[in-house]
Amino acid sequence: MNVSFILILLLFGTFATYLAGDKFAKTVALFFSLASVAGSIFILNQHNAGIDESFMINWISNPNIYIALKVDGLSLAMLLLTTVLTSLILFSSFGNNYNNSKSFYALVLFMSFAMVGTFLSADAFLYYIFWELALIPIYFIALIWGNGDADERKRAIVKFFIYTLAGSLFMLVAFIYLFQKAGSLLIGDLYAIRLTENEQFWIFAAFFLAYAIKIPIFPFHTWQANTYQMSPSVGTMLLSGIMLKMGLYSVIRWQLPIAPLAAKTYMDIFILLSVIGVVYGSIVALKQRNLKKLLAYSSLAHVGLIAAGAYSLSFDGLRGAVLQMIAHGFVVVGLFFAAEIIERRFQTQEISEMGGIRIQDNKFASMFMIVMLASVALPSTFNFIGEFTLLYSLYNVNIWFAVIAGTTIILGAVYMLKMFQHVMLGEQTDKVFKGITIQESVVFVIIIAVLLFFGLYPKPINDLITPALQDIVTKINKL
Amino acid sequence: MNTLIAISGLGILSLLAEIFNGRKAIVPITIIGLLAILGYNISPYNHLGTFYNNMMFVDKFSVAFTSLFIVVTIFLIALSHEFYKEQATKISDYVAIKVFLLAGAVAMVSFGNLSMFFLGIEVLSISLYVLAASNRLNLRSNEAGMKYFLMGSFASGIILFGICLLYGATGSFDLMNMYQITHSVNYPQWYYIGIIFLVIGMLFKIATVPFHFWAPDVYEGSPALTTATMSTLAKIVAMAALYKISILLIPTQTYSFQMIIVCVAIASMIVGNIMALRQNNVKRMFAFSGISHAGFMLMVLLILNNSAGVLLYYATAYAVAGIAFFAVVLYVTKGKDNETIDLFNGFGKTHPLLAAVLTASLLSMAGIPILSGFFAKFFLLNQVLLSGWTVLVIVAIISSIISVGYYFKIILAMYTKDSEKDLPNNIPFIYQVVAILALVINIGLGLYPSIVYNLLG
């Protein structure tokens, strides 16, 4: 068994879910999703035992293209993140009723398939295909099952689609160019070619366009808030929890090692853009009246910090980025799930129409608070480790970057606590908040357990990703 | 050579079927006949080489494209039976014209003599004029036929004029002779003028900017199946013929010639895509989308050395996506006065299967991965970038992004709007079969692109 098995499993699960019919779709989807988690853990064990589970066959002989899947610490971490979060997201949606749910859950599994493929691919062409494939299901999920005014939603989602597609097409041009230099698109061959500084700059810029839109980095973020708000919560969780990690992962895996010279020369500019995103996201979040939009902007701030860390090109920066990617994935799913729980009961996303929930449901309030505090990087949570490492790496580049980016923690605390105050505390409104169900609390318990466990003991993840990242750092510094 | 004879014979046979009262059998028999010809065409019995004093010149290129044309024609004829249901008495004419059209198409890719080429182009064009005007009680169809005839015959005249100049310069219609003359001895300057006239005439047939004005009107007015024939079959035929002419008759590509191609390609991609954004009529939109695709295909003329495979792949991808698209459009626009996008409202709910097929073929044309349209663009841009025309690649990418805008207009209409009245779900079986088969070919080509791409490698 090798890693391609997980992809086949998820693809098969997609069809099985669709064929299972509306009634059983979600159970079947969850089953396949959990099976993929089991598969990932098996691969993890094999990897730890020193068995290489990579997979490679020739797909198109002319031009030379392979189906190549690579297993190393980095891709494994992302694989686990994707499969575990997909299962959580699927489980969290059990409280909702979607019409035509067989298509809905099939699309979710298909998206998981595409994202896993993106993280595993070691051939740029295959990688690009998965990268684009992931866009199709989320487009339909957001479009058909989204909320809000239909015309507004259509505009937001189409904007999102065209934005991301536009960015990635430039990445495709860069890959075609690289293909002509290297004669193959295997990641090893791409690492090996030596490009002039000018070439590297254009390659780097083309990649940057694709990734900056996906992550999103300021000023390419304008699609984000509306799309997050309009999507159904499952879509929002998939987008913010996993999909934007595709961009960050690609920065580490593809952009930096292929064009290291450009990355070094223009490092300040890219860190600056990311840090602007941090401050901008935090300030805009302060002003938001819509809960999902507030969370979207807070997410913008957090991923800005991750991108800044990755662009610092140091080992600490990359490590912090990966740790924070995982931590942010769990936290953001938790936060959007909390928003979804409230929306299920109050039928609103407006903060002003909420309040007094703590009095009615103590348990939910405390779980929400833990996740919320994790998102503002309270020590002993996983996010603290991530953000601390990231800020440390920025400090090594330029102390001012660290100082400015550090405001995210302060501002984050301000808007998060303010939001918590308005949403959960205060007088009881006339709306009744039904206590959360066991199903809902299970999702929270898992998220909190992960956040606290790795917050106190990050060594397993650290050990997993360190060799792969060291490899990449040496490639960046190969000159 | 025998392929062409067999196709012509099949056309006569389907005319005769009328006399023997075999109207019902006509479509199945023609399809079976075409399948047999396809089998012969790709079998080793089909000899390559020259025939009849170099009138025909059959090589791998012409065999591959002939096979593609036959496959596309099979799809088009399969759609005929249902489409012409109300005019059942005329079915043999319609089918026969389509088969003759195919004969013209085959002549256009396997000519060895420019007179044969002109014969092919006229057979193809006259068949299309007739088909465009075939709905004789409909004013728009008449207008389309007339417009197409006037413009098309003018273009034929220009082509003929170009051929005359070539004859004057080389003293021969024979491609072999001309090839030898242009590659060895000196020849008069008006040879190039002749080439330019010939290329202009072909650019008209392909519908590229600035020779595209007929396309939207004619596409809109013609019966939908004729639009399908024009946009899929006729376009790729003309493109393949232009490719063959360029490779055989243009001894050296001067920079200014390349510049012309680049300008026409860029103009076609930009104008086609931007105009398509503004259309509310599906057929007109497809016309402009076809113009932009013509701009894409035109790029192969810059990379003549090893791009026959690229052109074949692109043409196949474009044709199968177009067939699937029209199989659905034929059903949706049936009995309607116009073909606005509103007709697709709520289609995703009432006809989930066909909506999915249509979505996939639109995504293929937009160039989304795993569907063949993406690979077509990838192979093409790969070669173009290799030849050094980076600007062209950037324009192609930008126009691809624009194209997503209008392809998604239909997808949005299908999935987000509700239909005003309930469409009964009685899709003709044959439309479903054609649509799904075309989609399967589309995906198959995406999964195993080497099958087609390496044929002419």
From TrEMBL, chain A:
<dbReference type="GO" id="GO:0015990">
    <property type="term" value="P:electron transport coupled proton transport"/>
</dbReference>
<dbReference type="Pfam" id="PF00361">
    <property type="entry name" value="Proton_antipo_M"/>
</dbReference>
<feature type="transmembrane region" description="Helical">
    <location>
        <begin position="321"/>
        <end position="343"/>
    </location>
</feature>
<feature type="domain" description="NADH:quinone oxidoreductase/Mrp antiporter transmembrane">
    <location>
        <begin position="122"/>
        <end position="408"/>
    </location>
</feature>
<dbReference type="GO" id="GO:0042773">
    <property type="term" value="P:ATP synthesis coupled electron transport"/>
</dbReference>
<keyword id="KW-1133">Transmembrane helix</keyword>
<dbReference type="GO" id="GO:0003954">
    <property type="term" value="F:NADH dehydrogenase activity"/>
</dbReference>
<feature type="transmembrane region" description="Helical">
    <location>
        <begin position="234"/>
        <end position="254"/>
    </location>
</feature>
<feature type="transmembrane region" description="Helical">
    <location>
        <begin position="266"/>
        <end position="287"/>
    </location>
</feature>
<feature type="transmembrane region" description="Helical">
    <location>
        <begin position="200"/>
        <end position="222"/>
    </location>
</feature>
<feature type="transmembrane region" description="Helical">
    <location>
        <begin position="28"/>
        <end position="45"/>
    </location>
</feature>
<feature type="transmembrane region" description="Helical">
    <location>
        <begin position="294"/>
        <end position="315"/>
    </location>
</feature>
<dbReference type="GO" id="GO:0048039">
    <property type="term" value="F:ubiquinone binding"/>
</dbReference>
<feature type="transmembrane region" description="Helical">
    <location>
        <begin position="438"/>
        <end position="457"/>
    </location>
</feature>
<comment type="similarity">
    <text>Belongs to the complex I subunit 4 family.</text>
</comment>
<dbReference type="GO" id="GO:0016020">
    <property type="term" value="C:membrane"/>
</dbReference>
<feature type="transmembrane region" description="Helical">
    <location>
        <begin position="6"/>
        <end position="21"/>
    </location>
</feature>
<feature type="transmembrane region" description="Helical">
    <location>
        <begin position="128"/>
        <end position="148"/>
    </location>
</feature>
<dbReference type="InterPro" id="IPR001750">
    <property type="entry name" value="ND/Mrp_TM"/>
</dbReference>
<keyword id="KW-0812">Transmembrane</keyword>
<protein>
    <submittedName>
        <fullName>NADH dehydrogenase subunit M</fullName>
    </submittedName>
</protein>
<feature type="transmembrane region" description="Helical">
    <location>
        <begin position="103"/>
        <end position="122"/>
    </location>
</feature>
UniProtKB/TrEMBL annotation, chain B:
<feature type="transmembrane region" description="Helical">
    <location>
        <begin position="225"/>
        <end position="243"/>
    </location>
</feature>
<feature type="transmembrane region" description="Helical">
    <location>
        <begin position="91"/>
        <end position="111"/>
    </location>
</feature>
<dbReference type="InterPro" id="IPR001750">
    <property type="entry name" value="ND/Mrp_TM"/>
</dbReference>
<keyword id="KW-1278">Translocase</keyword>
<keyword id="KW-0813">Transport</keyword>
<keyword id="KW-0812">Transmembrane</keyword>
<feature type="transmembrane region" description="Helical">
    <location>
        <begin position="353"/>
        <end position="380"/>
    </location>
</feature>
<dbReference type="GO" id="GO:0048038">
    <property type="term" value="F:quinone binding"/>
</dbReference>
<feature type="transmembrane region" description="Helical">
    <location>
        <begin position="286"/>
        <end position="305"/>
    </location>
</feature>
<keyword id="KW-1003">Cell membrane</keyword>
<comment type="subunit">
    <text>NDH-1 is composed of 14 different subunits. Subunits NuoA, H, J, K, L, M, N constitute the membrane sector of the complex.</text>
</comment>
<protein>
    <recommendedName>
        <fullName>NADH-quinone oxidoreductase subunit N</fullName>
        <ecNumber>7.1.1.-</ecNumber>
    </recommendedName>
</protein>
<feature type="transmembrane region" description="Helical">
    <location>
        <begin position="25"/>
        <end position="42"/>
    </location>
</feature>
<feature type="transmembrane region" description="Helical">
    <location>
        <begin position="255"/>
        <end position="274"/>
    </location>
</feature>
<dbReference type="InterPro" id="IPR010096">
    <property type="entry name" value="NADH-Q_OxRdtase_suN/2"/>
</dbReference>
<keyword id="KW-0472">Membrane</keyword>
<keyword id="KW-0520">NAD</keyword>
<dbReference type="GO" id="GO:0042773">
    <property type="term" value="P:ATP synthesis coupled electron transport"/>
</dbReference>
<feature type="transmembrane region" description="Helical">
    <location>
        <begin position="429"/>
        <end position="451"/>
    </location>
</feature>
<keyword id="KW-1133">Transmembrane helix</keyword>
<comment type="similarity">
    <text>Belongs to the complex I subunit 2 family.</text>
</comment>
<feature type="transmembrane region" description="Helical">
    <location>
        <begin position="386"/>
        <end position="408"/>
    </location>
</feature>
